[in-house]
Amino acid sequence: MDTADPAPEPALAVIEGGGSGPAGAASSSQPDDSLAYVSFAVKYSGSMLSVRLGEDDCVADLKAILYSLTDVPPASQKLLGITRGKPPSDDTLVGSIPFAPSALKPRPQNAPGQPQEPAGPAATDKVQVSFMLLGTPEADRFQDPSGTIKFAEDLEDRLAGDIDYAQQQEAVKTAVPPDQDPKNLRKLEKVIARFSNFSVMNEPRAGKRLLVLDLDYTIADTKRLLDPASPASVAARPGLHDFLAAAYRDYDICVWSQTSWRWLEVKLIELGMIGHDQFNISFVLDRTPMFSITAPGGKKHEVKPLELIWRRWPDLYGPHNTIHVDDLSRNGAINPKNICKIRAYKDAPRFDTELQAVLKLLRQLAHPSITDFRDVDLKAWKHFQGAEKQD
Ligand SMILES: [Mg+2]
C-alpha cells in the first residue's frame, strides 16, 4: 500500500448498519424496539474506519461492509485483536462475539443500572470495539506477477460450486425453498433497511422493464479483463455493446456484481460501459447488499436479492418485469422465477453467441403478449418459443 491514501479527505469512513426493525430482531430475546448496537473502530492501512452494526448482525455482515470500504475480500480479512483466541466464525452474531478485553472501550455515560430507553441509536450502543484489519485489497493481488488470480466469485466457486436449484427441488422436497425460508426473509428485510439507498447513475425510465446483469464471467472473462497484458476488448463477451444497446430500448440496465464497488467501477470503465452513447447503466450494485443463505444440501452461498430494487421503485419494477442474467444460478436462489442462468464466459473464446441468445429472450419477454415474466419457464429459456418484440 502506498502512503498516498486513495481517499484523501475522509480519514474516517462511517458506515452504519443494523436497526432493521421488527424483522431483524425476531430471533432475539429482546423486544423489537430496543435493538442494541456495537460500534467498531477499525484501523486499516493508516486510516480509521468506523462501522456500526446491530447485535443481531453477524460477522459476515461486518466483513461485507469492510470489503466495500477497503476492497479486501472477506475470505482474506484478518480481524486482528477482536478476540483473544480463535477468530469468530462468519455466522457468529455481533452481540455474542467474545471480544478481547483489550478491544473494548466502555462508554462511560452508560450507567450500569440505567433502564433501557427508546433513545436514538447512539444511546443504545452497547460497546465500542477497536481492532485492526489486515488483508490485501483485490486490486493489489491482480498486479502481483507471481500471484494466482483469486477474487470473490472464484473463491466462492471453489467453496460452494454452483447449485442447480431446478434439479435440487426434486431431490430435496422436504426442504423449505430459499425464497420462503423465514430466516432468509429476515435477512432480506435487514438488507433492504440498510442498503436500499444505493446511488443511481441514471434515473429509471417509466415503462421500461429491468435487466439485472452479472459481470464476472457473464459479460466478460474476468481473468482476461484483469490481465494487464491483454486489452479489455478481448475480455468482453462478444457482442457486448450491441447487446446492451439493443436491450436498452426496452430495459433499464443494472449491473450487479459480487465484488467491491471500487473494483466494479474499474471493470465497467475498462469494458467501455460508462458514457456510451447508445445505452446507459441505470445503477450498479456490489457485494454489500448480497447475503448468505444455506442451500438445501447445507452449503452456504450468497444471493442477489432483487427485492432490494423492487422495494425502491415499486411502481416501475417488480417480479413481473425483471430478469436477472447470471452465470451462477445460485445467485438467484432467492428469486427463482427471475433468474436466467447462462453459460459462463471463460478463456475468452472469440466465438460465443450467448448474448445474442439472451437478446432474443429479452425481446420475447418484451413482447406485449407477456405481462408477467414469471409465466415463462426461464429454466428452459433457450427453448422458449414466444414471439419477439419488433423495434
Ligand atoms: Mg458471474
From TrEMBL:
GO cellular component: nucleus
Pfam families (UniProt xref): NIF (PF03031)
Superkingdom in the source lineage: Eukaryota
Record domain FCP1 homology: where: 204-365
Region spans: Disordered: 1-31, 82-123
Family matches, as InterPro entries: FCP1_dom (IPR004274), HAD-like_sf (IPR036412), HAD_sf (IPR023214), Ubiquitin-like_domsf (IPR029071), UBLCP1 (IPR051658)
Bias (Low complexity) ranges: 108-123
A single GO molecular function term of this UniProt record: protein serine/threonine phosphatase activity
Membrane-crossing segments per the record: none
Single biological process term from Gene Ontology: regulation of proteasome assembly
PANTHER family named in the record: UBIQUITIN-LIKE DOMAIN-CONTAINING CTD PHOSPHATASE 1
Protein name according to UniProt: FCP1 homology domain-containing protein
Taxonomic lineage from the root: Eukaryota, Fungi, Dikarya, Basidiomycota, Ustilaginomycotina
